[in-house]
Amino acid sequence: DVDRDSRMLFKATKGLSQNEVSIVIKTLVRRTYRQRQETKAKFWELYDKELSEDLKSQLSDDFAPVIDALLVEREKFDAMTVHDALKGSPSAEATLIEILCTRNNRALEQIKKAYRDEHLNNLEDDVRSETAGQLQDLLLGLLAGDRDESNQVDEDLARQDAQELYEDEKDRWSTDSDSKLMSLITTKSYAHIRATFTEYEKLAQTDMLDVLKDELSGEFFVAMVALVRCLKDPAKFFAGRLAEAVSGSEGMDEDTLMRIVVTRSEVDLLEIKRLFKDQHGQALAETVEDSCKGDHKKLLLALIKGNKGS
């Protein structure tokens, strides 16, 4: 009930004791993204206030990034994340791939509009000013929104594309924006790309990631590895991102941790947590319990434990 949630949140923010903080956490975490957006709209209708800003004004600064992830419109939040990555946030290439390769064509258009509204500049123009070479070509190709979104795979066509990719001059992969590889990964459906990579690996008798390691370098290599891992097994990719986020040399990357937990909570977080435990040797909730120091830890843990498992 969005009306009840709105009134409960309004009442809770008037005097944030530990009990009221718990009410805020439970109310936000138990709702889906769509329900939270409806509650935010009802809160504005009832009180003429922006719910996220009202909460952030009452809670400690540690809560702000999580509140944004939970309550900011998804396309606006993605645009904020892309902007930060272009300006040099940690693991920027993987973050850009994380966003651009897990959003459909319609979502990409919404992200570009939100970016333009927020930053008064086209996202593509900022990509051109902040990146160069094949990384720039890759990002612009992904942002074009020209991807085939069908789930059907023509096995003959996948074998043909794999053969052409195998016969393509590999030095073109790191220099030419119109190489077979670039065309494949920016326009074909994800199902078709996966099938093509499977056929390619049969021809090359090696893993696609090993081929990339031999042929590419620098930022483009980092981005392509992230892209291939994301395409092959999204849950495993995100589990790896979480493992990197909690064990970085400069401390926990809480922005990445929070973003993945929130954006994948209604997609595949249960599987991500299982794979994280396999990779990291410890449950995600236990890792956050041990390593996260801010007041917002309860909110993060509630999000993580919102799915069965930990």
UniProtKB/TrEMBL annotation:
Record has Transmembrane as a keyword: no
The record's section on Pfam families has: Annexin
Q: Which GO terms describe its molecular function?
A: calcium ion binding; calcium-dependent phospholipid binding
Q: Where is the signal peptide?
A: none
Keywords, A to Z?
Answer: Annexin, Calcium, Calcium/phospholipid-binding, Repeat
Q: Which Gene3D superfamilies does the entry mention?
A: Annexin
Tell me which SUPFAM superfamilies the record gives.
Annexin
Identify the InterPro entries for this entry. Answer: Annexin, Annexin_repeat, Annexin_sf
Q: Does the keyword Calcium apply?
A: yes
Name the PANTHER family on file: ANNEXIN, ANNEXIN A13
Instruction: State the similarity comment.
Output: Belongs to the annexin family.
Q: What is this protein called?
A: Annexin
